[in-house]
């Protein structure tokens, strides 16, 4: 086949050229994004129920929702959490679940539940989580001084949002910080009392004035018309003109008995940019959009906004495309330095400028053609798939060097150029195919990991398989073709193949080889002894999800744990920013309830989050300490969390679960255990280091108790009392003015007097309009109650978070503690998910090793020789662990990927070495070169000489190509550095293993 293709160089060349051109065209159509569009199998149902307690939301809303969701297909876990006025249910599904169908099914169940939920409850919002939900940027919209905030809110909602959504590639624009305008009605209580008018009569007058006819039509001859009232309310002036009936006198305009005006609605949340109040717009991209093309459009749109709306300041922040640009930059760096160092190393080893040029042509050709596979598999160009391509580049160089070196060796043996190309490729073809298959056997099974890791590995596995498959095509066809074209006019010229440097290296290799083989048993024993010693280094390595990236920004999460409103929370945040004295580059904060449609986190008025960007790491650490001391000294009850601001990777990999949580349920009452009973029980917990879970956290509240007997004595109705309390303390909605899609509520303005004064000054009217003060019927007390009610699919639970290194050793003690109090005990948390992932990983790696063994057994036609390759893997892993330990690097996702790459290259070298030894044994046996032992010694030694150059060259070129990342700075380098350390450590030991361990192990295991 190779001979047939090489005999038609023009046809083959044009075919490759056409493939490259077509690949370039296809590449322009591929979506470019930060992360692959992964359907995270989670759905969050958000509930907003104003003026409702956590217990009320749990009992009346969340419990019916949970019970209806139990039968969902693929549902793995269900958690709910209710707080004051808000609640949510988080549904977790199996990764094989079709989330489009699950989303539809959840919405259908919510619709069927509507009649069974409270009448005044807004429809629960269903949020589906996807990697595309992570915003690509945030647009700050800050009104200048003197600008009407409501007008800016309308401008953002009706103009800016729509113009951004019209950009190619934008899927959704989400807004936080809006403030709406309402018409407030503040009755003059003294005037009402003098006229003998009640608040209810004022409310009734407004409701009557804003009433509308139902669908009524009248006939006028042969025509039919629909009736409508012409007295619709539109402005506060219309409301003030409404007549209000007095006791016995004439009706008076409403303006005489109440103040009516436009006001901002009572805010439940704010957004601050630095210390200025404003709005923030998050921009979300479509899954098929190219981020590198979308972001310039966004910046261009913002420039137009600045020109069109000078009364508003605009600024783009937290641009996530920086991560993608870092990934692309790393790939470009790898290609550039890989090509330069490959050329330099080849020149040093071979003293031949044509061979490096051939490799220089083959590398970008393979990379470009790989994008065809992306197109046919529906992959996007993202950081994960790009890292897969970067992984395959090392093996691509490896294959190229091996093929070219073998062709050159055949030429030195005296074969004609065409014959040398054909024979050189055919000799290593089966070994290279096996090496690619073994690499895929190690890597591809990781796709079957459950959770987000398996979903991410899919893109990486396909990209690695693509570039390795293309590399074989290039190595078997394009490389020999280029070699023939470059050397066809020098067919009879003896090229200088080995440089002086290589001859010195070869001499040193031979001396070490002879020293080791003089003490074969001792040498092999020492090498096997190294395996457990180096693998034990893994116990010294810290384990992390992602490598620590030097970030200059912080995310501060605050929960005041006090009954403060959003305005007070805003004042505290502004005071904190002022205390920092501009010691930051950028600051933005979200306070109270978030208005984002896609926000699926915890929503509470007492919470606030603050994002801070600093100039350098030193400033960040200093200000972090200052903020911590500032908050803890002034607000000792506040819960404070300070951490690096999450980027898109962190948001995807982060978990809402605590590490280890002990849960209990009171199955008798199916309610939370009362605090008076629970607090003494908590003092008897069989562990000292623990923290209260959400279901045990407390907050202060005012408890109203109604004296029903006194109400009955005075002939008053409980409903009238409750309605009066709602008017006094709630955001009482009278009616809505609706016009052209804009809704303006008319609300009764709550008094700013403290609640005790209101109870004394407000009245219920009994028979003959006799007034009775509310304080006669309502008793109040201050009390601490549970802040949240937590539940899972089995019911309400309370929990503590265990804060020890080995929490599981206390499981039996916790069960005894629960049994003594008639509580059922259960355990949950990230610890159990991590343990399941490790169990799956071990199983998958065992399958991968088994696949590796089967492939090699078929390649070598031996059951023993594959064991030699498998024994080389622990040495390479140990070498990687050694370098990670010496450099203080953790074992994380990137260093684990580096291990896979390094093992692929190591396996490649070992397979080729064993394949060469086998061929030489057959050749020497046919030549009759002596007894079996001498033939084996000769084959082992000669194979080492033949494979020395490609083994050392591939290791050196790969290591040198990766070295620039070690000395680089920036986000991309921080991500890739653990991968580089793994590869460098593994290949350093792996090169020694391929040169000396493989022949030693072959001697003892396969000499018969």
UniProtKB/TrEMBL annotation:
InterPro entries: AcrB_DN_DC_subdom, Acrflvin-R. The keyword Membrane applies. SUPFAM superfamilies: Multidrug efflux transporter AcrB pore domain, PN1, PN2, PC1 and PC2 subdomains, Multidrug efflux transporter AcrB TolC docking domain, DN and DC subdomains, Multidrug efflux transporter AcrB transmembrane domain. Keywords: Membrane, Transmembrane, Transmembrane helix. Signal peptide: none annotated. The chain crosses the membrane at residues 12-30, 331-350, 357-377, 383-404, 436-458, 464-486, 522-541, 841-860, 867-887, 893-912, 951-973, 979-1005. This is Efflux RND transporter permease subunit. It comes from Negadavirga shengliensis.
């Amino acid at each position: 086949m190779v001979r047939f293709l090489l005999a038609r160089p023009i046809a083959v060349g044009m075919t490759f050229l056409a493939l490259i051109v077509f690949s370039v065209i296809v590449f322009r159509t591929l979506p470019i994004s930060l992360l692959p569009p992964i359907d995270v199998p989670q759905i969050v149902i958000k509930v907003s129920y104003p003026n409702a307690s956590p217990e009320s939301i749990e009992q009346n809303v969340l419990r019916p929702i949970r019970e209806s969701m139990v039968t969902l297909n693929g549902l793995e876990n269900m958690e709910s959490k209710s707080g004051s006025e808000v609640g949510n249910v988080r549904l977790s599904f199996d990764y094989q679940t079709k989330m489009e169908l699950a989303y539809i099914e959840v919405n259908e169940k919510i619709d069927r539940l509507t009649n069974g939920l409270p009448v005044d409850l807004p429809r629960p919002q269903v949020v589906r989580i996807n990697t595309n939900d992570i915003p690509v940027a945030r647009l700050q919209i800050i009104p200048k001084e003197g600008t009407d905030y409501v007008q800016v809110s309308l401008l953002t909602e009706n103009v800016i949002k729509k113009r951004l959504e019209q950009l190619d590639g934008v899927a959704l624009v989400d807004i936080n910080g809006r403030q709406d305008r309402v018409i407030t009605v503040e009755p003059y209580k003294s005037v009402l009392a003098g006229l003998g008018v009640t608040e209810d009569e004022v409310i009734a007058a407004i409701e009557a004035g804003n009433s509308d006819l139902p669908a009524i039509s009248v006939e006028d001859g042969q025509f039919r018309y629909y009736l409508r009232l012409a007295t619709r309310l539109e402005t506060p002036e219309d409301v003030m003109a409404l007549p209000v009936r007095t006791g016995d006198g004439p009706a008076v305009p409403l303006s005489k008995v109440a103040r009516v005006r436009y006001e901002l609605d009572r805010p439940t949340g704010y957004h601050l940019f630095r210390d200025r109040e404003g709005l923030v717009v998050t921009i979300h991209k479509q899954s098929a959009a190219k981020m590198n093309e979308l972001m310039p459009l966004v910046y261009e749109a913002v420039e137009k906004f600045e020109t069109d709306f000078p009364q508003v300041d605009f600024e783009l922040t937290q641009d996530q495309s920086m991560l993608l640009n870092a990934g692309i930059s790393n790939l470009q760096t790898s290609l550039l330095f890989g090509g330069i160092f490959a050329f330099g190393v080849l020149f040093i080893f071979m003293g031949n400028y044509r061979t490096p040029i051939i490799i220089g042509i083959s590398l970008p050709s393979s990379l470009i053609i790989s994008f065809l596979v992306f197109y046919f598999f529906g992959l996007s160009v993202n950081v994960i798939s790009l890292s897969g391509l970067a992984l395959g580049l090392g093996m691509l160089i490896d294959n190229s060097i091996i093929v070219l070196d073998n062709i050159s060796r055949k030429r030195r043996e005296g074969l004609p150029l065409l014959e040398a190309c054909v024979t050189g490729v055919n000799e290593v073809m089966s070994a290279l195919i096996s090496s690619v298959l073994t690499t895929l056997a190690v890597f591809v099974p990781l796709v079957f990991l459950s959770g987000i890791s398996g979903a991410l590995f899919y893109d990486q596995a396909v990209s690695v398989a693509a570039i390795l498959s293309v590399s074989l095509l290039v190595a078997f066809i394009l490389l020999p073709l280029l070699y023939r074209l470059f050397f066809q006019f020098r067919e009879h010229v003896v090229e200088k193949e080995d440089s002086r440097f290589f001859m010195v290296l070869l001499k040193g290799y031979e001396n070490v080889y002879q020293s080791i083989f003089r003490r074969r048993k001792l040498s092999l024993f020492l090498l096997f002894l190294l395996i457990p010693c180096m693998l034990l280094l893994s116990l010294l390595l810290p384990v992390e999800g992602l490598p620590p990236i030097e970030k200059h920004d912080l995310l501060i999460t605050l929960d005041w744990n006090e009954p403060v409103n959003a305005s007070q929370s805003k004042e505290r945040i502004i005071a904190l920013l002022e205390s920092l004295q501009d010691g930051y580059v950028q600051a933005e904060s979200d306070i109270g309830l978030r208005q984002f449609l896609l926000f699926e986190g915890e929503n509470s008025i007492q919470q606030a989050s603050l994002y801070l960007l600093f100039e350098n790491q030193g400033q960040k650490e200093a200000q972090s300490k200052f903020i911590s001391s500032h908050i803890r000294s002034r607000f000792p009850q506040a819960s404070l969390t300070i951490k690096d601001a999450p980027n898109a990777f962190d948001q995807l990999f982060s978990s809402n679960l605590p590490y280890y949580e002990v849960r209990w349920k009171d199955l008798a009452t199916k309610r939370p255990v009362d605090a008076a009973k629970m607090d003494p029980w908590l003092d008897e917990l069989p562990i000292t280091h623990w923290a209260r879970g959400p279901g045990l956290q407390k907050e202060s509240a005012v408890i109203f108790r109604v004296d029903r007997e006194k109400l009955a004595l005075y002939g008053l109705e409980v409903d009238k009392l409750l309605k009066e309390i709602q008017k006094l303390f709630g955001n009482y909605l009278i009616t809505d003015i609706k016009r052209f899609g804009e809704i303006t509520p008319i609300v009764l303005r709550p008094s700013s007097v403290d609640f005790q004064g209101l109870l004394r000054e407000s009245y219920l009217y009994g028979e003959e309009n006799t007034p009775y003060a509310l304080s006669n019927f309502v008793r109040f007390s201050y009390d601490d109650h549970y802040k949240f009610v937590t539940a899972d699919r089995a019911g309400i639970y309370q929990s503590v978070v265990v804060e020890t290194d080995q929490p599981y050793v206390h499981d039996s003690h916790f069960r005894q503690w629960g049994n003594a109090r008639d509580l059922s005990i259960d355990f949950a948390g990230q610890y159990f998910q991590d343990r399941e992932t490790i169990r799956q990983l071990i199983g998958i790696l065992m399958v991968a090793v088994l696949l590796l063994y089967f492939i090699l057994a078929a390649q070598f036609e031996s059951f023993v020789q594959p064991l030699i390759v498998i024994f080389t893997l622990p040495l390479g892993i140990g070498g990687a662990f050694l370098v990670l330990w010496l450099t203080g690097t953790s074992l994380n996702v990137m260093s684990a990927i580096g291990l896979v790459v390094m093992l692929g290259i190591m396996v490649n070298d070992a397979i080729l070495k064993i394949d060469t030894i086998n061929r030489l044994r057959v050749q020497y046996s046919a030549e009759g070169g002596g007894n079996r032992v001498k033939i084996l010694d000769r084959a082992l030694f000669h194979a080492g000489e033949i494979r020395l150059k490609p083994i050392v060259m591939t290791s050196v070129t790969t290591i040198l190509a990766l070295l620039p990342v070690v000395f680089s700075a920036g986000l991309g380098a921080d991500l890739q550095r653990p991968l580089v350390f793994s590869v460098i450590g593994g290949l350093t030991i792996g090169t020694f293993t391929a040169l000396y361990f493989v022949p030693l192990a072959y001697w003892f295991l396969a000499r018969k």
